[in-house]
Amino acid sequence: MSMADAKDDAAMAEAQPLGRWPVLSYGVGHMLNDITSACWFTYLLLFLQQIGLAPRAAAVVMLSGQVADGLMTILAGEMIDRFGRFKLWHIGGSVLVGFSFSSVFGGCLLCTILGTDSYLVRTVGYSFFAAVFNVGWAATQVSHMSMVNCMTLNPTSRVALASCRNASTMVANLGLYGIALGVFGAIKAKEYSDIVTQYRWIAYLSIFIGCCFLVVFHAGTKEPTLKSEPSCKKAARISWGYWFKKTLYYQVALLYMLARLITNVSQSLIAFYVTRDLRMNEYSKAIIPAIIFCCSFFVSIVLQEIKWTSRRLKSLLTVGATLWVISGVAVFVLPSQMNSLMYPLAMVIGAANAPVMVTTIGLEGALVGEDLNGCAFVYGSLSFLDKISCGIALFALESYEDTMVSYGETRGLNTVSRYGTGLIPSCFAVLSLVVTSTLRLQDDTPRAAALDAPLLV
């Protein structure tokens, strides 16, 4: 066999679809990040305000974490592109996530160390551990996401990996809301200590479950070697400037940022919305998010079975964004007397979230293509935009709430939770529709095979 034939055989092997187990074991590798992130975005602002922090101070804690997360994504992307070692970064970040997450929702550790419970110490303490949490979260996220392009060259398998990861995210969110529902039912929040106990139990159980899936990931997923193979088309590390010259980079970056703004901003304020605006019971702050993620989970599972092309990516992203425009406007104008309609609306939101997130992550894979030696920078830089934009958006909304409170009680539609849960995500969805219409994608391997074994059977 000639050297050329050997290279062709190697290339064909690398382009073969992945089996079920590699996809599933990879997909659960982000579960610790996902379950803690679900708690972070759904309950952090609510928890901090329940224990006495003002909306703006709570937003400062959130923003400090988002800034640290954004900066770490850039650093992690650069270091992984230079030195590799995906799984080492993954386990290191996971350790930081577990330690710092328990230090935020488990009570003010800095207050305990200094022996004081002053407002300033609490704000600084929560902000510090929020930053540590997000540093670990970013290291785990970038290493996990950038593994996709180095595990296989098959485009359908790459989307399947991203889709399985997204489905696992839904499972993690459902697990979190199941835990929260059980804890809220078992421990009634009558005073400050009860609130702290509630969230401490949520944090500890979340970390335990996430670590169980972490073991599965490291046991079932090998360190990717495709990046270092001779068949890799670009052996030299790709500079940042290479990506900045691509129009597609800016389009995908904007779409990914908008997708994250849609999901994270709405998720962060939905607990306020259902309890304050719609005047639903306390269980609703776990049940409504659970419905959203349950629907997202089922749609994500279906999406894993699709044979992907650029046209389908664009079409499904358009469908998801359109559903969000409709449901977001409905959420914004929904009166409290008709709060039962929030249940079907939650189903529509969940169905919209899945195609929005799966397709934008799939677009990241399409952007990277076979340029494997720069993939971590792409995922890191796009995640940087996501974290900073979400932090700024939530800080602006919470600062506006502080301003409204200083002028007295607000009524009608003029509430931050209505804006953040409904109207603002709808505006972001409209922008994503505009950007999607400008995409020009090409299918390098239009006849790529689907998964070796379907995930539904």
UniProtKB/TrEMBL annotation:
Single GO term (MF): symporter activity
UniProt KW keywords: Membrane, Transmembrane, Transmembrane helix
TM spans (from-to): 88-114, 126-147, 167-189, 201-220, 248-274, 286-303, 315-334, 341-363, 419-439
Pfam families for the chain: MFS_2
InterPro entries named in the record: MFS_2, MFS_trans_sf
SUPFAM superfamilies linked to this entry: MFS general substrate transporter
Any one cellular-component term (Gene Ontology): membrane
Single GO biological process annotation from the record: carbohydrate transport
The keyword Lipid metabolism is annotated on this UniProt entry: no
Family membership noted in the UniProt record: Belongs to the major facilitator superfamily.
Protein name as it appears in the record: Major facilitator superfamily domain-containing protein 12
Organism whose genome encodes this protein: Zea mays
